[in-house]
Structure formats: C-alpha cells, structure tokens
Fold this sequence. Notes:
Elements lengths: L7 E8 L5 E5 L3 E6 L13 E7 L2 E7 H4 L7 H4 L3 E7 L2 E7 L1 E9 L16 E7 L2 E6 L1 H8 L12 H8 L3 E4 L3 H12 L6 E3 L2 H13 L6 E5 L7 H10 L7 E6 L4 H9 L4 E4 L3 H19 L2
Parallel strand pairs: 2-10, 5-7, 11-12, 11-13, 13-14, 14-15
Antiparallel strand pairs: 1-2, 1-8, 3-6, 4-5, 6-7, 9-10
Helix pairs in contact: 5-9, 6-7
Amino acid sequence: MQSTSSQSQGLLLFKLTQVQSFALGTLKIQEIVPYQALTQLPNAEPNVIGATSIRGQTLSVIDMAGAVGYPPISEEEKKDCVIILTDCSRQHVGFLVRKIERIIECNWKNIEPPPSTLGHKTYITGITRFEDKLIQLLDIELLLSEIFPSEDEGAVDITGVQKGLLQNMHILLVDDSAVARRQLENALTNIDVPFKVCKNGQDALAVMKDLAAKDNPIDILVSDIEMPGLDGYELTFEVRSVPEIADAYIILHTSLSSEMSVDRATQVGANDALTKFEAQALINAMLKGAKKHEEESKK
C-alpha cells in the first residue's frame, strides 16, 4: 500500500504585531485585499470592526490582533493594513492584519503541537520555524466559534435503537483544534455515547495500537484532516497499513469547503469525509460505520 497523501501545504505568513509571525493554511484563504472603508455593524461583537462588499459578497471583517489578545489595530494604522478573506467552517469572513509577509511551503511533519505551557486558552494549533523565525499557526475555527457562536451545534435527531448501536462502538475522536474537539465531544455527550479523544494523529495511532493489543480495538475513528505532525490523510494511511487496526471505520472531516480534501480522503482509504461541523451529518456517518461493523460481526 502506498500513501497518496501530500504532506506539504502552503502557509501564508503575516504579522499581528511588529515582531511575531503567524500563519494560516492557504487552502482556507480565498483572497488578500488592501484595507477598504468598512460599514459599521450595529450590536456587533467588539472585534468585528465592520463589513465590506467584495465581488458582490458582503463579509464581516474581524480585527484578528484584537481577537487573539494583542493591541487592536488603530484607525491610523488601518490604511496600511490588509484583509485576508477566508472560507472556513462554512463561513466567509475577512481578517484585518497589520502586514502580509509571504507564502511558504511547509511539511506537516515539521509543525509541532503548541507547548502545554500556553494553557487552555490559546488560539495556536501548531508551531514551526522558517528562516530561524518562530511561526505560530492560528486556530481560526476557535476564533469564529467565539465571535459567531452557534447555539445548537450539538443537536441531533436519533432513535433509541440508533443510540444503542453507537453506545456499543469504541469511538476515537482526533482534532488539534480545541473548538472542533468541543463540538465533536458535545455531539456524542448529548446522546450519551462514550468516546475517547486525542489532540493529534501520533497520539491517536498509539492509542489505537495499544487498545488493539488489549483486544479492545477502535471501531470508529473520527479525525480532522489538517493537523500538525501526522495529518488525517497520513493517519488513515497508517491505520490501513496495520492489520490489527485496519478494520476501523474512518471518518475524516475538514473545515475547508473545497471538494478536493473530501476526494483525497477517500483516495487514502477513509470510509467517509465531511465538511465540519454539522452534528447531524457526523452522527449519520458514525451510524453508517456502526451498521457496517454490526453486519460484519454477523458474518
């Protein structure tokens, strides 16, 4: 078996302060435009500094520096700033940043999880280095969830029989984003379905091997695609390459709207792929996996 996954992705480097460099994956970025006058929005969250219309689409614009805890961009600075237009978690939003640096290619395996010393309240999903500079990858899913919270993100429609089916499955959730883990966890907790959770692909692979050795293998693996170290594609490839865990039903999910990510997920061996986050779609996919395991156990 040979992996079809590409470990390289583009990163857009930019500054929120005069010193520190941050990054977003280029697949989440639609366009970069100079600052333009914004229309004020009544009763908006403080870091939503206005809205603009670009190519016929109206977008909210967020002061990214202020949103992650740095000094907000002043009125005097704005004329020299740039708006990054993103498409993430089914939302089209603009982020105002102080300066665009460049686009680089980065191998996922060169991106490390953020140090635990940062604590629980952090907007960083990974760190890497470029030309001896520290680069921090921002968790814009977390930003968006805090600025535009969803009240019913974990609500699902499920029967008692379906719930019982999932309760008999050994489920592992994997995501480097704190908000994505919370969403996944809420979806299962709300229907009393037990699960295990990991923050990265390496830990998930180790957990799956350990449980299989104890004759308690994972039945359903739900993993993010874009993760530092071992991404969802490579995790799928590794799982399919180990006979003891290869039978897991694998669901990959992504915050990107592009069908390219979904298509590649099936190419590397995933059973299903979703654009995150929609609780009902996730539960439906897991039910497909549970039914598949049930049918195979009867053979």
